[in-house]
Fold each of these.
Amino acid sequence: MKEEFEKRIVTGPDGKQFEVDPMKDYFCEDRPQVHQPNSNTVIEKFMNWARSESLWILGFGTGCGAIEMRPLMTPRFDAYRYGIQWRPTPRQANVFVISGYLSVKTLKRVVRSYEQMQGPKYVVGLGSCTINGGMYWDSYNTINRLDYYLPVDIYIAGCMPRPESLLAGFEQLKKMIKAGECEGQNKYAENFDWYKANQKKIIKDWDMPDYNW
Amino acid sequence: MKELIARLKKQFKITDEVYQKPDQTYITVPQEQAVALVTHLRDYEGFNHLVLLTAVDWIEENLFQLIYLLNNNDFKADLGVRVMIDRHEATMTSIHHLWKAAATYQRELKEMFGIDFPGSPRVDEPFILEGWDNIPPYRRDFDTKKYSEETYFPRPGRTTHDPAEYMKKKLYPED
């Protein structure tokens, strides 16, 4: 357990001393919950349309694929015209692009960031590494299959995929969201124990709450 | 460079010398003289830049080889100091007092090869592998493929082709 997660006595601004237990006080203890779609299909369809047209990507590059997102942000390929933009914090984002190989050390940060994102949220696996490990398939430190740790909505294959294929992937993601197929967040909540078991199998120094919301 | 080696030979027991390129030379010294030689090179011979500190696993000889690659900006030349150390009790004197950056290299070597550098700052803290519980992964007796298959849920259906054979079949199927 890291020092910052241990119980400690804190002196408040008014001079009073009180005990802080970061694992209980700073994090929600509840498990993620399954969100039912709106019973009115017209409203649900409208909401899905609205969700699909505002994809806010978390600016978190996990591997070499992050370099392919830079041309997308800039005028050459300009993803902003499709309603896709990048945000600096997980609280403002709803799409997580796992860009390429994912080491165990990064996976720990990825899990934390993913759980802090606002729902409904989507995961895009970019590059071969997220599908079967790619060229790092026999590495001691990179994962092979992303879908064992996070619910992946769409993969963009390639090593590396060009910005055009990323744009095509995002268009496909939009179609899937409009059709109501992107239920990754609910899948994560339903199979929460299985995902956690897989994550804890490889993250051996687990020193954070089970659910980081 | 040969003059420099001849000069060094008077003071240090240099067992081997390799003139790899005009601007790249490697010398081998015993373990107990290595830090003295590196200090001498830095303070008197102008090799004041530590390019890298790395290791090679000579598992058959039961040795680790440490390489201190130093650069002299006046001569535009590199000099590598090779040291063979025992593989079972892999301990080496730290050089973090000569270059602060060496502490990072030593921390990496501790984690990846299991070579200990007593007294080096933060050498026992995890560097990249957080919570690693196996033998250090850069040692050659660590089977990285087996470890990956056991740990990371490999996706079935992966095949390997010999590139030459594969392209021959694809381009000239009738032959």
Amino acid sequence: MKLSIKAALMAAVMFGTGAQAMETVVWWDFLGGGDGVRMKKLIEDFNTEHKDAIEIQATTLDWGVPFYSKVQTSAAVGEGPDMMTYHASRIPLAVSQESLTEITAEDMATMGLSADSFAPATWEAVQVNGKQYAVPFDTHPIVLYYNKDLLEKSGLIGADGLPTGLTGLENFNAALAKLKADGNEWSIAQVTADGNFAFRTVYSLLCQQDGQIGNDGDWFPGDSADKLATSIGVISDWVKAGYNPPKTDYPSTVALFTSGKVPFMINGVWEVPTMDDLNKQGKLFNWGAIEIPALFNHTCTYSDSHSFAIPNNVDKPVTPEKHAAVLEVIKWMEARSLFWATAGHIPANKAVTESAEYKAMQPQATYAPLTANGVFDPKSVLAGVASPLFDAAGNAITPAMNGELDPADAAAQMRDELNGM
Amino acid sequence: MLRNRRTEITTALILIAPFLIVYIWLFLWPTVQMIEMSFQKAPLIGKGKWTGFANYIRMFKDATFLIAVKNTAYFVLLSVVPGTVVALSIAMMVSRLKGRLQSLILAAFFLPYVLPVTVVYVIWDWMTNVQFGMMQGLITFLVGEPVNIWRTVDWFMPGVAILTIWWTNGFSILLFLAGLRNIPAELYEAAQLDGATRRQIFLRITFPLLWPITVLCLTIQLILQLKIFDQVYLFAQGGQTRATMVLVQYIFEQAFQKNNGGYSATLAVALFVIVLVFSLLQFQILRIRGQR
């Protein structure tokens, strides 16, 4: 009797230690869309491959402010995850709140990665004061989606099968006029209900004119505020001319495009899977996506980067085993980011984008070179997705795009609001 | 029977201790900390620096704070009394029905109340979508063109008020219905014998006897609507959040988005005082009127 109890205890102890050898990595992300489905597949594959060694326990939280509030508050009391996805643009704020752990050169070496693995702008985006706080996983800019069938009808497809005659604002607007005249209900779908979202387009156009978004105290240096007004004016002119539907929200622009009512759409690369899936079901026309054409001096597109970060869980030091497991997860994900590219995002790891498999992927390979012309958020605690900068854009740009506010006034309002913070 | 006063007090203390501890720990203590924080320049989490009344001075000069107060007041105006009137009229209509039909209709009116705000948001967002929404037909009929309610500042608060009434009315209807059932039928019979008109019956019997319920409804609604946040936050996100800002939303923005723990605590104290003053005032005024 006693012996059997002893044996049971023994077994329990041994079983216990056996279970301890397996590391669990608690993972938080904010990927709720088509990309979330693909991330779940990656996590599943990781867990299968690392059976009995490492297990990712993933939770998907709400994108934006809710995610970042939760990370900040939970890290401060030592209840954060072991790792998480993070927007590069949000890193300066997180560093000021001390909620991220530095990624050391040693860590990078362990993962077999270095600065050379990434595009310069992307690499720069995860550094604050010379220290690295995240590992870039992708860049996700906005692109110009097009309905090839409708463009062909209006003679806007060139010999190479790509849209043509879109360079320069005049040419671009002429193309929009042609599309409208050829019987399309609208010519282009840019989100006009959310200045917050439209800011990505406005910032790209600002950069195309060599305008800048500065930093605390002087947000629009030089004549950047005038250039900002010009950028906003481009969209408000589209609305005024009836090319772009007014006050239209994100889901509606996608619905207008996928139902063939509008031949162009400016949206994030993350809508690629939506088109892909519809296409596979035979419910979509011929389509493609290209870098936003140079409407001004040169091409330039606003980008952000999904990266992997390790929270600074206060009073809860990480064991070396756990840290190694986290690095293994990041290393594995970086190496498998080709699959992530099916979500539309451009893998940050150059080894992946330079592979033959990636170059065969369409439309990804067509727009991927734009990472060389990317512009990221300014390094400020007030910038980044769902930040005060984006909110200021929402307040100023939303009415301006829809003709309720003069673009110049909107630019001044945005400048004054940010400078006053 | 002889009782020892001291043991009596001890027993009482032991019995209320669980409540007291939880109340002091989870309610009073955070409130004290909030007030303390409102005098500091502090991040959301972590230690702050004492700055005296700086936050309060800033608050009274803050244009956004004034907008938020104005919007909150406007919303209360649009939702509290109209919501209660709608609830009363629906309750009176429902009370005329009998049996199963009454339960069915009542359930229909109560259904929105059980929905979470996110679901309410999605339903209304689609119904009012400027490109595809079914309500745009009605809006086009009324004003001649489709309107994006949530992106047109003048339409925003009335829109939120209407959906809030639709959403939260079920509870007030239930309260009124319970009140109506408590009015003795004899009163109505007597009034009818005396030849009272329906208008007189309502004004002299139904409404006075329902007054306590009306006071309760108005007070609950007032406190609830002063704290409006979710609907406005959800419908305004990405748009002109400044123009449609309400108080709790501003507290949230300062605390969680801008990491200004101290200032957001100041705003929270202001809201606390406003809610306290208004609910006391309203309750007093309504009580005095009721005694007449």
Amino acid sequence: MSILTLLIICPLLTSVLLLLPKSDKGTKSIALIGSIIQIALTGYITFLYQAIRSAGDKSQMLFESNIVWFSTLHINFHTGVDGISLVMMLLTGFVVLAGVLVSWNIKNQVKEFFFFIMLLSTGAFGFFMSLDLFMLFFFLEIAVVPKYMLIGIWGSGKKENNAMKLALMLMAGSAMVFLGIVGIYFASGYFGPHNTWDILELSKIHLPAEIQRVIYVLTFVGFGVFTAMFPFHTWAPDGHSSAPTAASMFLAGISMKLGGYGCLRVATYLMPTAAKELSWIFIILASIAIVYGAFATLMQKDLKYMNAYSSVSHCGFVVLGIAMLTKTAFAGAVMQMVSHGLMTALFFAAIGMIYDRTHTRMSDQLGGMLKQLPFIGTAFIIAGLCSLGLPGFSGFVSEMTIFTGSWEKAGLFYRVATILACASIVITAVYILRAVGKAIWGTVTNKTYLMLTDATWSERAATILLVVGIVIIGVAPFLFIRLIEPDVQYIINRIIL
Amino acid sequence: MNSDIYILLILLLPLLSFLFIGLSGRKLSTGMAVSVGCLTLITTLIFSIAVAFDYFFVKGSVGGVYAPQIVARFEWLRFSPGMSIDLGLIVDPISVMMLLVITCISTMVNIFSIGYMKGEERLKSYYAYLSLFTFSMLGLVLSINIFQMYIFWELVGISSFLLIGFFFNKPSAIAAAKKAFIVTRFADFGFLIGILILGTGAKTFDFLTLIDRLTHPGVALDSLTGSGFLGMSCLTWALILVFMGGAGKSAMFPLHIWLPDAMEGPTPVSALIHAATMVVAGVFLVARLFPIYSISAPEVLQGIAYIGSFTALFSALIACAQTDIKKVLAYSTISQIGFMMFALGVAGWGEGHDEGFTASMFHLFTHAFFKALLFLCAGSVIHAVHSNEMKDMGGLRKSMPITHITFLLACLAIAGIPPFSGFFSKEAILSAAAHGNPPVFYVGLFTSALTSFYMFRLYFSIFWSKPVDAHAHNHEKGQWAMNIPLILLAIGAVLAGLIPFGKYVSATGKAIELPIHVMFSVLPVCLGLGGILVAAFMYKKQNEIPQKVTKLLGNFYEAAYKKFFIDEIYLFLTHKVIFNLIGRPAAWFDRNVVDGMIQRTGSTSVNTSNAIKNLQSGKLQGYTMYFLGGVIVLVVLILIKFL
């Protein structure tokens, strides 16, 4: 058993253990300890990973373990990590810990709440380390169901409807993914040595182009639903608006990244021929999402809707980077996933903290928050600045990597798409600064806001955690690039062939 | 003496000061923050002087040529082999000159702010932002890589945003801050595309390599000039787009609209950012890439000359009609940057043609002193009378003697009266223009007459106009923090012109002569004096003449007062077109069409299941009927087939 398995066991065990204590405080403490252990584990694995890599181990995946699970159907519990999945797991660790911290003041059904959060975390960790398509799908499903509960029970507004919409759309997405991977499984029997779900084995097989095309579109669109790819993004604004803070953070911070990771690892990596032929479709969809999402954001008054639409725009960059099929763009897409995950989690955390105090998320009803709540106001501004791509924060480096990577593709079509994507940095600035100007700056409009108290210790800890992540990537992107570069090379090698 | 360490410290000290003040929270006392801010800058100023001395007099010159030196470099973000953002420090004549300007003005402004911002609640944030700005601006001028410059370019933009919006309980300040950032961001969009075209074409983002590859025939130059779009080569496009970024920061027409509004920020900030340093970043950018512009795309340079001269004239006209003293200064800044731009535009590569380059840098240098001085004086006046409007001022010469004298000196400098600094640099620009592009020269000549008119209109309105109030107390007493920077900057404004600038700063690094021809100078100086006389005639004593002139000019005055309606055009474009015609429909479309489609999928499946659920009724008779029906249909089908 490899050390990776601990990362599945740990959240799972936490979710069981936290059912034991009688008091809410005990439950919360167990959840907190569990998530601290998770992040420590991911940190330790990163450390080991780098040590092994620098010792000269060039194998594609490290910490591999392969256990037969269901031999008739060739399903194996095959896990392993490369740089890409490692950074995604680090992201998960950060966001889960931050999510637990901001949920510290939750009042009702505390046990169930943290139970579902830990379940989600299990799903996400499992997903990123799976090297077996079936297991990957299995963990993807684990990550979907708790979201329905989190929104349906602890949400606000039209929560039942929105939770249902979110769950059904994601289910539809995963149904397409399932069709796709079943297709891969059977095709691998015809065109390879034997039927297999194994990503590493599949990466050595070249399926015929006509099969690849069908599977590529199915899996890309299916995972695309998770990344809120246009036009399958409408679950995101509604889902976020109803979700409790921590659920929003997971949804945008991790769940949307499951999709991006899938698009890269399954659709593009395993179906390279089709990717070369058909990725133009997704370039078009991504460009639309980027610009159209940004314009739609302009008109949002509800801060959560604003951030949800802006996520549509920002995740468009991820899809664009993946669809551009250059090494730089891939690296940028991975970077953007992590960056957006941290940034949007911080954004939702800040919005949630403001909402908890003022009971409104309407930017025109707020105002003067920086004066009343200096810490939270600053957190909001930092998230905003990261979102508009200020250098020093992670958003800048990842967007620039994607732009440069996309520009490497010669041809008017690609150039136009890149220019459209670049144009969004202007629109992003408009909506972010409008929100900052209205809600955070200005004078206090409502007398009751004068009594508000600034962030609690747990909220501060969550904010600092996420800001640290954002700043590290923003200031030292070379660390990040060094971690993922060899693995991006594997993917691009398949494309170039 | 190792000046490399000094350069690193010059860059890092302001950053450390920003982090220290920004992160220390409530425990840090305001006084402490202020002294940290000021002392850091005084240190960087001393270091800058040491570096400049070292570069210009000790080891910079190799065989009579000031060559660029790369002090530090490391690979920060690698996109693909050869293409990376390297962070590093470059030392060459223009970057050292900018070091001096930035640290000097920044130090003065930091000291001035002690007096001006006294009692301000968020003084710590103010000093933190100032440090951030200084750091970013220094990083911008020391960049070795065009992408590195873009990084600091954006950081400068955000510090400007934070400082303009410093008084964020005023809605006008918020609006101005947003406008400044968004307009320059729009320009940066062009800059970014320009960088991408240049970088991928030349396979590098490094300034020196880039310049080398794009000025000598080779693969890189061929690939960029060989391909084109809409009738212009890619290189031309890229350079136009890069200039667009510069035009945004340097407030060139039609991207100038943010600068006058930016005066909502505290006045010392206007002196630092919106007069002396950030707004000349665009000029600096063009100067940095000057070899590429002048050798490979002279047509773009010519366009820059026209845009620069038009901006100079256009904003000088507006300045004549403004009544807010900071607005007058803002338009005057735009106009003077126009001078610097067109000076670059009329220059060319090679001996005898590159006078304009040196003239532009010279004017940048002298302008920094006298314009910062003008703004700080204006700050001093505003501090005393608590208003920005000319009508609330007048007759202040007795109650504010230091401000009065220093303001007068600065006005003489900007009007180009010998022997003050502006005379030398403006003379150099005009002679370069006369040499390189006569139409631009005439525009420049006329504009410089206007300059002295509107500056002295300002001077007389503030310090003369109304009779002196004999009982007014001295506003300046005890304001040492505000008076000392005024005096020091006045010394700079008077003497900076005497530096033999051509010896140190030129396009090629070789010393050139900036000759002063007495015959040539007569006309500009006379025009300048004429402007002063007209202003004195109209504004020295309160009289009816200004009203009469206004009436005479009628609509033209109105248009100049309203800034030629450019703001209204932008407002129309942003609110009517972008918000109402694109944003709102996009949001509506998303809610009703895209989401509607999804919702309809849901409701259709519900309806369908409602419609067909009765089939599964569980009644045996029903099923028998369906069975019979099915059999009949099948039989009929078989019969049709066989008959």
Amino acid sequence: MSRLEAKKPPLFISEPLTRDAVSQSLSLLSGILKSSYGPAGRLKQLHNGVGGCVCTTSQSSALLGHLSVSQPVLRVLTASVQNHVSRFSDCGLFTAILCCAFIENFRSLNVAPFTVIKISKHLLSLCMDYLKSEACACRVSVDFSNVETLVCLVRSILTSKPACMLNKTEVDHLTMLVLKAFLFTVPCHVETNAILGKCVIVPVKGTRVVDSTVLPGLLIEAPEIQLGKPLAVKRTGSNAIKTALFSVSMAGDGFNPEEGTIAVHHGVSLEASELNELLNLGKQLVKDEVGLVMCQKVMHPCLKQYLKENGVIAVDRAGLCLMEPLGRLTGSKPMASIHSLSLGCYGSLKDLCFESFASKHFIHLIPEDTVICSLILCNRSETAWDELKRVCETAEHVLQLTMKEPLALLGGGCTETHLASYIRHKSSHLPANTFKDLDCSQTQYQLVSDGFCHSLETVARSLGHNNGEVLTDMVYGHCWFVPSGSPCVSNWADLVSKCGCGMNSNTKDLNWRFLQGQSSSPIIQSCPKEPSEKVTDLLTLECFAAKCSGLQVALETANLILDLSYIVEDQN
Amino acid sequence: MPMAFKDVNTRRHIGLQQLSSLASPGRTFLGPMKSHKFIVDESTNQSTLICSAVRLIESLDLTSAAGQLLNETIQAQNKEFKTGMSTLLFLVGAWSNAVMECLQQNVPVPAIVSVMSEGLNSCCERVQCLQIPIHDVKKELSEEVIPLNSRSHQGDDCHFNKCLVSPLAGFGSVASLVKAAGDKSSSVLSGSGVTASSCITKKLTHSRHFSPLGKSHFSSQQDNFQGYLSDPCGCCGLGHLAVALSHGNQTSMKLLQSIAAYQQERAECRGSSQLNIAEIVTCCLLGLPESYSCVSPGFVTLVSPEQATVIKHFADKSLRILLMDGDLTEQYRHLGFNRPRNVRTILEHPNPQESRAGDTWLSRMLDVLMSLEVNVVLVKGNVCENLMEGCIASRILVIGCVVWDVLHAFGQVTGAQAVTYLSQLNASCVGSGAWAELWKASDGRAMDLGELVPVRLGAGGIPLLTAVLTTALPSRAQLLEDQFWTLLYRLHHALKDGKVFPGGGAVELLCLSHIRVLAEQPQRLGNDKAVRELPSPWLAEYKSIVLQALASGWKQYLSVVLCNTAKAGSELEAGASVDHHLQKAAACASPSAYVLEEFRRGGVLGDGSDPFPDHGKTLKVFDNVAAKTEAWRRALDLVLLVLQTDTEIITGLQRNQLLNSHVSSEFMFL
């Protein structure tokens, strides 16, 4: 007898943001993210508590990927940020921290949510218009004919994650490698629709970072290859190496039924007939003058032996990640069956050689002209390598984004404080009909605008992690960090030497003010200026596209969350 | 999957405390005089004898995140260098403590990270001037007469032999040993069955750190090694380097000298000066005294008496050899092959004569081997027992669990191609020209080691060498093997680096001296981006505290080694001794010149009370360059990584599990 239980009614939670549990979780999440932000950010150890591997990180993708949040409100937030990161790789923490700050700042205002949303959207459009205008003083243009700005951009990304454990020499070395790898992926002969190539990261863990290097072409790990022996490879008439690429398993177990049962007569061996098929395939490959056979999965040792005896190099276990670049590199079409070979599927290569890094051996596929390259990435420990890999991928992605839109924003909190200064200035000089259009009072606008600016400044403040003061100047609107434990002095110029992005030095009194909390008196801000002397080396820069998207995503997500009036939870 | 968070960033950093406590048992492994430890498993009452940081870490509970990271760090150093792990472990502990003291004094984390890592960089650059090219080392060492006495037991061996007499007295009681060391009249090597030679006047001879011994105190009886050491000119370069890197471990040192001599001969043919680690394997023989340890060309391994009889039948015949890179069983399939699950076999006409189907594979395989006249089969994996019996009956020697390097070496000289299945075998896969014999000790002593018989396989021109490690104590087998590989890798890396550091604390002393200089020059550090914007007066305040913390790691290292080797009665005394030398170095125009001069005189931290001060020439000791500096860097990286961590996030555990645990109050949930 089955027993039926009545369905439970769904649980309605009204005004979720007013609940204590929600605000506690929100401030906990915000605290974790803020403490991770920037080059001096604190690291988080993610582990299962029973001796599993430990991930030490301060990256939003790793952090949010491991977080499983039970609060629906927070889930909206993390999903938005993860979506942003999947599209831009960079500025994940910025987006998340800013979103939390918007929620916290706007919630405490005594203004109806729909008014807040309207005003904040207007403020966002002011920001975006400014960022996209020539007059924008917190952005620099990136000149691809000059490596200097690109170096700053890559270096800023590499140094933003302390868990990579890089020293200065290592940062310099990797910056150059990342740039070199990127340049390999840019096609030399640009036609109407140029497509960027791909940089494949090859892991070599447990060795020095400075042993990292970039090679054109691809590397496939081949443990049984014997080093030191010259590599004899069959070539076609045009001196190229003909290649074949298989995505199907060639292990000889292809007869396994997906479902159902096969009945065979005694004495019939499916294994033997499958092997026979494989050897027939081998014969065809030899006949077609193929010099290199690559397989994503496992190759039967007998097939390998047959190919080797006939002067064909066979490499198996290439892995799924290499399949697409292998196809692009050689022009081979991945074959998904061992029964049908067509001449059109073969590709070609210029050369092959052996390479070894630390204790790993590779076969190196050298193409004629390529946009595919391999970054052999080394770091001493597993946990630091993982972080470094994520950072290098971010840097490659940022370079690609920057190529589309050759701009960068000032880092080190300066873009945030500068934008805040600009908005403060702009919002106090708005034409009167703006408020009418927005259906709000000037006071309401001012309140929301203050919250907006505070939120931006909160992000800049999160870069300082040691209870030191964070300042902004009234001239350029840049961000300045005062070290903790500094003596109380009347002149800030004695304590700060350079602003966050490195553009300004404290040559003169810049009229500094604290960047903390809600101030009682309104801040009278003139339009922030652009520094007269442009410094170009050792600047901290950020990806323009990623930051712009982050700003928008943060506000839109915050508005969505502010607008929530009910959560309906299915109890069953 | 709920999340849990634990705040670790208090002024008493939990992660650093964990590192410190995990590292603390490792201090007795520093220096040439190591104390052994028993690891006792309380559940089984079994105990293991260990004497290295790697084995210690294997035995510790490492479920904490800091413990996991420490293990990962030690394993990475072990994988690459096989040496420097004890240094690494010690510095992790020392620097963790030092960093915690900085936190106590409210030094901000970025200042600690920046100054320490730049300080270490600066020190690593500074000590480059101490590097001695291998070429110079070989030349210098060859000019000295290096005693090669295999029968005099000194250094580590004394310690061991004492343990052999009375194991309980030896372990964990360095103090008692130390007493005996100074007492020339007493011999600790009595009744051990090993000749105690007249040289027992002082314990440490090849100490990396202290008190080298005058050469005249060695009795130069060379035995066992005439084979490879009879030509003093040919091998002395590498051989002497091996001595200088062995840090007093006599047994392994002698093996290394043989290997060096053998490989040098080959290296000259190949034109490469490097040691080929892949051509060396070890074989442990229990039941023979340690003095029987030696290097045998070819592959020495243990087989059953039945297999040994097959070898007797081979006599001096040239053998045909087969190499297999998987298991030799009917069920074995190559890696990545998925076994068929839903295949049913239908038997329509049962034939009673085919009832013993299982044997057909066996007979087919034997037929293949017989038809190709294979005599020896080396198998990487396991071997089916029935097939093994069949082969013995057919006088085919089958040896399982052979490492890939051995298969490769045989493949190179016999022309054999490794196969996975016997079914794929053809005549071109079978190699020829191999030989096999029973292994004999140097004195021709019969090997009756119970159930297993040592045999030696080879082929003309095979580059393979087996270090045969003999011991009467089963508990020491692992230890001997570890020590052998450590020394082998030291020599390998010395050749790979092309240079060595002077040993005996020279490098650490120069680091300490350099840190003094750094502390006095405000501009030299703090250019890192993280603190770039900080004005120098602020940084200067913390810089001296942090540099002191960095220095304290090496100072404690030297002090503990001085104590472990009984050169100082207490760490206080040892510290004073280090300070004394630092002052002398500072007084010199060039501290590096001072350090090198002291090294040349025979020991940087010698205390002047050397009993044989007249013997001008003394034994040199050297350290690896990359292994040492990498161990420092890895240790500091780990400490700084943990220092910068402020939160642990537990994934995967159920919320209830954590809520019910005794530490639930430490966690917060999202």
